[in-house]
Each structure stands twice: as structure tokens, then as C-alpha cells.
Amino acid sequence: MKLLIRPAAEVAIKSKPVRRQQMRHLRQNIRKLLARLDDDIHVEGSWDRVDVAIPDGRGLAGPVIDELGRIPGISTIQEIGVFPWISMDDVAEQAVAAYADRIRGKTFAVRVRRHGNHGFRSIDLERFVGAALFEASEPEGVNLRNPDIEVRIEVHEDHYHIAHRKHRGAGGYPLGAVETVMTLVSGGYDSSVAAYLMMRRGLRSHFLFFSLGGPAHEIGVRQVVHYLWDRYGASHGAKFISVPFEGVVAEIMRSVNQRHWGVVLKRQMLKAASDIATANNAAGLVTGDAVAQVSSQTLSNLNVVDRASNEVVLRPLISMDKETIINIARDIGTEPFARTMPEYCGVISRKPATRAKLHRVEEDEAAMDARVLEQAIASRQDTPVNRLLETTRTPEEVELVHTPAVNDVIIDVRHPSEGEQSPLQLTSNQVVEIPFYELNERIQSMPDDKQYLLYCDRGTMSRMHACHLKAEGHTNIKVYAPAN
């Protein structure tokens, strides 16, 4: 079996030198990805097409077409039947077998191209095959200008091709044909869709994760990043870079006006991302921001956030609504990951600034200890994306307690402002208020002979930190989850 691959329209309109370069990228990507299925798949092509020859009898047609449909830069994938040249009668017989059912009740036209010398003209074969199809089926008629179905035949010296089913490709540019970017990922709907759209645009991407909520969250992000890369970007190597950001969050909450928490957190992330992108030769940053989706994504706040970076910030979702983003996530397969991804809710202002002023935000940041961000950047961990699942550990199992024992100590890990708004009141248990950003430090000095139950409103942040503490060797940690 043979497949004829046409490049996306944007590749086809490039100048000849650029088009040749991009087609070379496309052929290389196809070879590398199809070799994962079978080393005997043959890929060749020219400046306007790629031909893929699939060995017979190995059941590879479906998997190959599925793989090709996810490779950026491809417009269409046409299945081609290859036959030895015998006679015009044989061509007509094969065309009837392939198209008789498909043209019933529709208009059609036969298109023939010849390569070499033959004892007939292309139009002669078109008329001969067209007559056979008309007799074998019940078409609406022949329409040479705008047919419902085109029957395409290519005749070479000693063989001929008949085009069969056509499949849509992903479009866009071949991966690696444009620059490299650093994509900020959280594992949710937005960042995974943004990463996919940039890969589809031909941008090779590394993935940058700011760890705020312990190993449970990071494991989920590692899984979705590996999935994205394996399905849409595996023709090129990529890094997963994890930056421990709990200390930066704690410093923000100690030093910054609460109204600016969200904006300052985004600025600190962009500052770190800019430095890390430079170290990895990435020409831009990609985020999942959509205008006005949350308070930090107003135009005023996005402008303030962007001033923290020396790199261009790309936002492919900027005009999309949530429904559109979720639909794309469903199409590309990241929706199940995003739906179950733990949501980190530690940096939420009660009255966030929606029109932050740059000079005021910079004054707040000046009160922060700059060494905290520097230490976070220096402590980052790089992992090749193809090894992400090898290095992923299962998070520690954490028991949920609905009714605490009398001697259990409840640790309220919410921010003090949340505790003031809705205090946790228990009649029989000691309640200790330790904001999550101080928990790792203060737990070291607490008695080991007590059982501690972490608590927060949603239960997400308490689970994350409990997992982290158990992974660090604290066996006396559980989560308090009051029964509703």
C-alpha cells in the first residue's frame, strides 16, 4: 500500500527555498515517527509531496494513517492502490472496484496523469474508465468542473496508481521548521491546549512547570506532558523543567500587598521562565492565558505581567472562551487529564487588582528577597520528556479522616485571611493554624508522637502537602476531610 501526503497550504505557498527546507523537515519527522511502527516503512518525496510505502500483510495501514494524522505540517493523506500495468480494461476494473459504490447518486470525474510514453492519451483513459464507472454504478452524472467525487489515476511506465480514501492531516508547519519556545504548563485545560497549538504551528517546545503543590500535582503534569509530546511532538526531543516555587509563593505572601498576589506570582514565573528560556536557546514563552478569564488576565494586568520578561510571550488562547478550549482539549485527548488535575488554590486574593499599576507592583516586588527566586531557578530539575514516565513516582497514599480521634491535632493550612473569613472550630481537637507556605519548616519542630490532620476548604491543597510530607518521611500525617 502507498500513501500520498500533501503539505499544509501554508507550506505550499512558501518560496521555493523555504518550501524545500520545510518539506525536508516534514520528511524527516515522518521517517522518525513511522520507524517506531516498522523500520521497513519507506518514506521519500519531492518538494511538493511525500510518498509512504507500507509493507503488505503487516496490518500497518490503520496505525500509519493515525500517526500521520497527528504530524504537524500535513494537509491530506491519500491512500493509493499500486498495480502493474496490464491493460486499460484492468485499470477500469480496479477503478470500478474502488469507486462504484462511492459515486452512486453523485457526480464524478476521472482525472488521469501519465509519466512516460504510452500508446494512448490521458483523455482516452479518462473516457474509458468513466464509461465503465457509469455502466457499473448509478451516478448522477459526469461533472468535469466541480464533481462530488474525483477518480484520480496516475500511469507510470510499468505500473499505475488509483487514489482511494483521503484523510485530513493536522495542518500547520512541520515541527522544528520554526523556532524553539518554552511552554509554561500547569496540567489544566488551557496550558495543554496552548502547548498543542504551538507544536502544530511548527514550534519545538520545552515544558516548564512551577511546582506549587507537592508531588501529586507534578505527577499529573508529567503524565499530560508526556502524552502531548508522544502524540504530537515526538519527532523532536524536549525537556520537562520543574522549578520548586513554594518558597517564592511564601515570599510573595509575606512581602506583597494581597491585591497584587496573582500579578506578582505571574511576573515571578515569567522572570524565571525568561532566564531558563535563554539557557535553553528558546526564543519565546508560551502561556495559556485567555483575556479576562481571571483577574490576572485583564489587559492591564497582562501588560504589567509581560514587563517582567525579556522574551516575547505568546498566548494562542487569548481570544478563546472556555468551552472552545475544552472542546479542543477533548479533540486532542488532554481533557481527561485536565478534568482530574489537582487545582492549586493557594494564591487567591479576596479583592485582586484588575488594573494593576506597574510602579506599584514593582514597589511591592522590591520588598521581596530576590535570592528566593534565584534559589528556585538554581534548584530546577531537567528531565528528558521521553523519560518522564520512567522517573515518575506514585504519590504517597494519604488517608482521609472524616471524624478525627480526640488526640489528633488539626493543622489548618489555609492562608490566614481565609481562616479569618471562615474559622475552623472543633470542640474536641486542638486546631493549629500553619499557613501552607510555612508548613515544611514548622513541621520539623512539632512533636513526633502526635497524629496531624491537614485541613483546607477544598481538600486539594491539604492532600498535596500531606503527600509531600509523607514522601519526606513524616508518617504521622493524614488529611482531615469533614463529612458533608
Shape: elongated
End-to-end gap: 60 Å
Number of strands: 19
Mean pLDDT: 90
Total number of helices: 17
Low-confidence runs (pLDDT<50, min 5 residues)? Answer: none
Short structural description:
This protein is of the alpha/beta class and 484 residues long. The chain contains 17 helices and 19 strands.
Outline the structure in words:
With 484 residues, the chain is α/β, with parallel strands linked by helices. The protein is built from 17 helices and 19 strands. The chain has helices at 9-12, 16-34, 61-68, 88-103, 122-136, 189-200, 215-232, 246-255, 261-279, 299-306, 322-332, 335-340, 358-366, 370-378, 416-421, 436-442, 460-471, and strands at 2-7, 42-45, 50-53, 74-84, 107-114, 141-142, 149-155, 159-168, 180-184, 204-211, 239-244, 284-286, 312-314, 381-384, 400-401, 409-412, 430-433, 452-455, 477-480. The strands form 3 sheets. An 8-stranded mixed sheet has the order 2-3-1-4-8-7-5-6. It has a 6-stranded mixed sheet with strand order 13-12-9-10-11-14, sandwiched between helices. Strands 15-19-18-16-17 form a 5-stranded parallel sheet, covered by helices on one side. The model has no long low-confidence stretch (mean pLDDT 90).
